[in-house]
Amino acid sequence: MSCRLSYLNLTAARLPTANNMDTTRLSSKGQLVLPKAIREADAWTEGTEFIVERVPEGVLLRPVRSLPATRLEDVIGCAGYRGPARSAADMERAIAQGVKARRGRGRY
Fold first, then answer.
1. Beta bridge partners of 53
2. Residue-wise DSSP of 12-45
3. Is the residue at 57 inside a domain?
4. Sign of the alpha-carbon dihedral angle for 93, 96, 100, 101
5. pTM surpassing 0.70?
6. Number of structural domains the chain divides into
């Protein structure tokens, strides 16, 4: 017996049951209105963007979560390079050399 984990199964406790399920209707423009109780429960306001994904059960809407603002000081050095500082010209030459090598192998 296999245990299939899916987003739907993991969030089933948050989904409305058949007894209290709201319904909506697709408009001629392809628009749906999410019930107010659902919008308020998840604090979805006008302009909230969703990722639309086809799943075996139908369609899954997931709100797009924006990434927190990142400062250069927070991520500097995350690439793991420990050598001497390189100039922009040095980096551009290395990139051009890498592209040329890939093209020579029939890639790009």
1. 60
2. GGGSPPGGG-------TTS-----HHHHHHTT--
3. yes
4. positive
5. no
6. 1
CB atoms within 10 A of CB 35: 13
d(CA 32, CA 26): 5
Average of pLDDT values for 13-29?
72
What's the confidence (pLDDT) of residue 48? 92
Domain span at residue 46 reads: 33-65
Q: How confident is the model at residue 108 (pLDDT cuts 50, 70, 90)?
A: low
How far is the CA of 74 from the CAs of 14, 63, 68, 71, in angstroms?
35, 26, 12, 5
Q: What angle do CA 48, 39, 28 make, to 5 degrees?
A: 70
Residues in the chain: 108
